[in-house]
Amino acid sequence: MKRIRALQVLGSLAFAILLSAAHAAPGPEAVNDLQAWQVITLRTSLGAGHRILAYMEAQPREGNLDGSGSRKDDFSALLLRPALGYRVNRHVSIWQGYAWYSFFTPASFHENRLFQQLLIENDFKKLSMVNRTRLEERFIEGRDRTAVRLRHMLRLAYPIGKSKKWSIVGYDEFFVNLNSVNPSPSAGFDQNRAFLGINRKFNNHVNAELGYQNQYVGVDNPFPDRINHIILFALNISR
To answer: From first to last of its 239 residues, what are the pLDDT tens digits of the chain?
Structure first.
């Protein structure tokens, strides 16, 4: 029975990702790219009854791994994201953060972001669920004003085996631009990210994840949309 439930969860996650990809399926003119993202996160409490939280994320990204693109260098972007949070209760926390995003190829530009976040974490027997809603104020180089974006992620994890060291993990995150800036982005759908992979828990403080992420990016005309096929590795540390 436990194996059947695990397979049901895996099937549901896979179906959700395939459905997301099908819903966002662009025409044959879309640009495809094979990428690798590495994510390192650190989350800790700063005292005050463990209600004050701190978070740091570093995320280097590499593109054009299959050599099909025009650019010659693989290192394409770097994102750094610190944040402070307040734990409302054991399930709910609110956050204020900053992100620095630098994009190197095929053209170089920089972006600074402020963001506010609501994080809801729940366990339903073995199934772990995370709902994350984030509002971003994006200060993009070369734009005439601040771009505002809303994004929501639903993440599920289900353990495999009695040891609970291994888990099936899946999530989907939807991005919407709330306003238009010149020359881009435009208000409306921005992108969707769908992930399916495996998580390995080493102890109560460290876990790692490896899997596939499909990123569909809607691009303003006359440029084609993008589909990024991403090998994603994450190392997560909590204290």
So the answer is: 455 454 445 555 555 555 454 444 444 477 898 999 999 999 999 976 789 999 999 999 998 777 665 444 456 899 999 999 999 999 999 999 999 999 876 667 899 999 999 999 999 988 999 999 999 999 999 999 999 999 999 999 999 988 889 999 999 999 999 999 999 899 999 999 999 999 999 999 999 999 999 999 998 777 789 999 999 999 999 98
CATH number of 2-238: 2.40.160.40
Q: What's the rounded Cα separation, in Å, for the pair 171 and 36?
A: 18
User: To 5 degrees, how large is the angle CA 97–CA 168–CA 166?
Assistant: 100
Q: Where are the domains of the chain?
A: 2-238
